Amino acid sequence: IDINKDWKLVSLWIGTNDVGTLGYGDEPPISKETYKSEIEQGLKYLKENLPRTIVSIIGMFPAQLLQEASSILKTGKRMRDETNQKKLDSLSNDYRNASFEIQDEGNFNTKEFTVVVQPFATEYSSVYVDRIGNYNSSFYAVDLFHLSKLGHAILAKHYWQNLFEPVGKKTRKAELGDTTSLIYELDENNSFIKTVGNSKE
């Protein structure tokens, strides 16, 4: 790979542990402003040191898919009371919105560098359910928080599809439970990762 001439893809999925700490420990999770600022610091470093790069940010999932999966699978209910559920959902939304703000503000977009959000599961407001609608723990590792090989494979398939969908028309609620769907195929009319710049008609 020629670091200066070849295009590179950097995938960024960050913040799920911060959301999960809400209500635990002595310190609150970082604010939306801090979350956004720290990502921007990282992007600034990448832009200065990694030419010809697309940074792909995976949009924050709703808490039910990861942080509260264990409780929902075991009890059928979310683990926090209604007040803390609202705080958890609000924080997830804040982090998600921060990612979109970074993309839409365009401060990092040039001909040699760009940032784009992949929102394929940002509206999947449930623990993982299979094709027939049943809760299914096979998506998760034994701790029911991290992903199993199956979970990684499912998310990777939908992430791949999101990469090639235009900004503004990207899938936001992927059918994660449909494991029979085929991997998104590219053709001569659609073989480039979609960014803010090349999604304009």
Structure overview:
- With 201 residues, the protein is mostly helical.
- It has a single domain (8-199), classed as Rossmann fold (3-Layer(aba) Sandwich).
- The chain is built from five helices and three strands; from the N terminus they run βααβααβα.
- The protein has helices spanning 16-20, 32-49, 69-75, 82-105, 149-163; strands at 8-12, 53-58, 113-118.
- It has a three-stranded parallel β-sheet, sandwiched between helices.
- The longest helix is centred in the middle third of the chain and has 24 residues, at 82-105.
Give a nutshell description of this structure:
The protein is mainly α.
What is the name of the CATH topology? Rossmann fold
- The total count of helices amounts to 5
Classify the beta-strand content into a percent band.
5-15%
Structural class: mainly alpha
Please provide the ordered H/E string of secondary-structure elements: EHHEHHEH
How far is the N terminus from the C terminus? 32 Å
Sheet with the most strands, sense and barrel status:
3 strands, parallel
The figure for the number of domains is 1
What is the gyration radius calculated from CA atoms? 18 Å
Weakly predicted, low-confidence segments: none
Query: How many strands appear in the DSSP assignment?
Result: 3
Q: Please state how the strands of the largest beta sheet are arranged side by side.
A: 1-2-3
Mean pLDDT, all residues: 94
CATH architecture: 3-Layer(aba) Sandwich
Specify the CATH class: Alpha Beta
Binned, the helix content reads 25-40%
GO molecular function: phospholipase activity
InterPro entries: GDSL, PLB1, SGNH_hydro_sf
